[in-house]
Amino acid sequence: MKYLTLNEEILLLTIWRLKNDAYGVSIREEYSRATGKNIVMGTMYNSLDYLVKKGYVITEKGEPTAERGGRSKIYYRVTKSGLEALKKAKELHDSVWESIPGSIFENLER
């Protein structure tokens, strides 16, 4: 299995956290809040499309709304495969960090 990139991991976790409110703008806002960095909409949508192609995310069309000029929001949902990919990513992080002593950060305070 290929591992997720950090960007993919953050996007999947963001979608999972947002539950039924995971659409473009809310994903971007939550991503920025969580990371302290803005993600360019084009980059985000390219990454989301890639996650859909991998089968980690599905899309659902919402109801058209007047404030969007009659257009529908596209909602994103994490699939079982997406959750499995997140589990593998966490296991990888845990495995790598397991062998690193907590004292690695002690010298940062000085």
**Uncertain spans:** none
Structural class by sheet pairing and helices = alpha+beta
Percent in helix: 40-55%
Distance between the termini: 41 Å
Q: Using the alpha-carbon principal axes, give the shape.
A: elongated
Gyration radius (Cα, Å) is 17 Å
Q: List how many beta strands DSSP finds.
A: 2
CATH domain fold name: Arc Repressor Mutant, subunit A
How would you characterize this protein structure?
- This protein is an alpha+beta fold.
- The protein has a single domain, classed as Winged helix-like DNA-binding domain superfamily/Winged helix DNA-binding domain (Arc Repressor Mutant, subunit A).
- Helix content is about 55%, strand content about 15%.
- The protein is built from four helices and two strands.
- It has helices at about 5-20, 25-35, 40-55, 80-100; strands spanning about 55-65, 70-80.
- Strands 1-2 form a two-stranded antiparallel sheet.
- Helix 1 crosses helix 3.
- The protein is elongated, with a radius of gyration of 17 Å.
- The protein starts with 5 loop residues before the first helix and ends in a 12-residue tail after the last helix.
- The model has no long low-confidence stretch (mean pLDDT about 90).
Topology:
Layout: H1 6-18, H2 24-35, H3 41-54, E1 57-64, E2 72-78, H4 80-98
Antiparallel strand pairs: 1-2
Helix pairs in contact: 1-2, 1-3
Main features:
alpha+beta; 4 helices; 14% strand; 110 residues; Arc Repressor Mutant, subunit A; 2 strands; elongated
